[in-house]
Amino acid sequence: MTNRTLDIALISLKRYPWLHLFPVAFDNKAQPLLKDYLKQASNDPAQIRRWHAYWRAQFKGQGCWWGVAPALSGLVFADIDTKTGKRGEQTFELFDLLYGWPQTRIIGSPSGGRHHWYRGRHLFALGTDKSNHPGIDFAQFVILPGCMKADGTGYTLLADHPIADAPDWFYVETKR
How far is CA 125 from the centre of its chain? Predict the structure, then answer.
């Protein structure tokens, strides 16, 4: 079990060799373990193994999670927030009616939301109530599927479609 998160990272890199990963504290998506992690992320399996060994030793045998650095990976993530009080699903449905969402890889989050992965220029924008995309963040980074919390919830693969190109309307709608 101690190598499970290493396996997740290496399998992901084998499938998507252009992914750039960085270590994140186990069970804490808000705690990247590298300074300047979005620029220091790597797609080198040897570096991933070194990070895994180092952090596993620091955390007394517990493996770290893995974040995906979008700009280095050529990706943009649409994070649909469906928690109580959030309007992500309604915004998603509105944009689906207006533009249609390209079929793509979708990862479920522990809170019940989901991350849609797209190829394209990285975009970071929070979907505040005053934005044109309430409840949909264009995330700074996401966690790889297979990274699980201590309570058994985690990041799960919901749709294993090829990663689609980001639609132009992402960039237009976030600037309105």
Answer: 14
Nearest to 123 by CA among 105, 144, 141, 108: 141
What angle separates helix 168-175 from helix 88-98, to the nearest 10 degrees?
A: 120
pTM of the model: 0.94
Q: Residues with Cβ < 8 Å from 37, sequence gap 6 or more?
A: 22, 67, 69, 141
CB 16 within 8 A of CB 22: no
10 Å Cβ neighbour count for 113? 19
Distance, CA of 112 to CA of 51 (rounded, Å): 29
> How far apart (Å, rounded) are the C-alpha atoms in residues 16 and 71?
15
C-alpha–C-alpha distance, residues 50 and 69, integer Å: 18
User: Model confidence over 136-155: pLDDT tens digits?
Assistant: 999 999 999 999 998 989 99
